[in-house]
Design goal:
It is a single chain. The protein has 4 helices and 12 strands; from the N terminus they run H-E-E-E-H-E-E-E-E-E-E-H-E-E-E-H. It has helices spanning about 20-45, 105-115, 200-205, 255-280, and strands at about 45-50, 65-70, 80-85, 125-130, 135-140, 145-150, 150, 180, 185-190, 205-210, 210-220, 225-230. The longest helix is centred in the C-terminal third of the chain and has 24 residues, at about 255-280. It has a domain at about 45-95 and about 120-235: Umud Fragment, subunit A (Ribbon), CATH 2.10.109.10. By secondary structure, it is α+β, with helices and mostly antiparallel strands. The model is unreliable at about 245-265 (pLDDT under 50). About 20% of the residues lie in helices and about 20% in strands. The strands form 2 sheets. Strands 1, 2, 3, 4, 9, 10, 11 and 12 form an 8-stranded antiparallel beta sheet that branches.
């Protein structure tokens, strides 16, 4: 009698994945893309729209700049950096949002803002750092140059003729003279490159470092304006200010009496350690 060859039991069958239909994939991909864009713009980089002329000719109205939101987690703002920050309460917005915008316009603006195509908030400002904590800032010499810690600064990016004397417009910052300002710890002195129209630290006061969102590094739109943003070269010869480095612990003076009192304690601990080694 011949043995009957029975078929081997079938192994576990792999479940076939259902492929989503096109009309199902598109919304899913959009959600993923928006989620990635949100995370990148929240923690890494964000594109900002320039709504005013306060930074001309470095940045003109309609430019979009890429702002690095990570850089100041590993360092501090430096003179010459172009920074985006939340304006303190006394800073007047340089543009106003349309209060009569429709619901759909607001939704579209929110989605545009999510991917860096919307306008910034009314309290978001972009200016150039002129003074860091401990710096002394004043203006000007006969050439219209500002002084930082006694050093005159040649600023090639400033709007032409912006340093000339002119009547001060009521409610505006004057383009030229202002009294010496000593930058307090934890604060920045900032100015716009277009000194005629910029509302900045000359008349609005200092900006807390904790308000800084990030550093503007590159103009990314329009294509014809692609360029990096000039930074700290004009300030390279400026000596350090009067206070300790940003974020550093204060440096305490050395007390010679205290050192003399610590000497016997150090000698006693040294002798105790030596006697322990001898017993061992």
């Amino acid at each position: 009698m011949e043995p009957v060859n029975r078929p081997a039991p079938a192994g576990p069958q792999r479940r076939q994945r259902r492929r989503l239909k096109l009309w199902q994939e598109i919304p899913l991909l959009l959600v993923i893309a928006l989620g990635v864009a949100f995370l990148v713009q929240t923690f890494l980089f964000r594109a900002y729209y320039i709504p005013s002329s306060s930074m001309e000719d470095t940045l003109i109205r309609g430019d979009r700049v890429l702002v690095n939101k990570v850089v100041y987690r590993f360092g501090d703002p430096e003179r010459g950096d172009v920074v985006v920050f939340k304006g303190p309460p006394n800073w007047t917005p340089e543009f106003s949002a349309d209060p009569n915008a429709s619901f759909f316009s607001k939704v579209g603006s929110g989605l545009s803002d999510l991917v860096g195509l919307g306008t910034p908030g009314e309290k978001d400002f972009i200016k150039r750092v002129i003074g860091v904590p401990g710096d002394r800032v004043s203006c000007c010499d006969v050439k219209g140059r500002i002084f930082v810690n006694g050093t005159p600064i040649d600023e090639p990016y400033v709007t032409k003729n912006a340093n000339k004397d002119s009547p001060k417009t009521p409610g505006q910052c004057g383009p030229r003279q202002f009294d010496e300002v000593v930058v307090e710890p934890g604060m920045l002195f900032v100015m716009g490159d277009n000194r005629f129209v910029s509302q900045d630290s000359r008349c609005r006061g200092l900006v807390p470092i904790e308000n800084v969102i990030g550093r503007a590094g590159t103009v990314v739109w329009p294509v014809s304006r692609w360029d990096s943003i000039s930074s700290s070269d004009p300030f390279k010869d400026v000596p350090a200010g009067q206070t300790q480095a940003l974020g550093g612990d204060p440096v305490l003076p050395v007390d010679p009496v205290g050192l003399a009192m610590l000497a016997p304690v150090w000698l006693a601990r040294r002798n105790t350690a030596r006697s322990r080694r001898l017993r061992a």
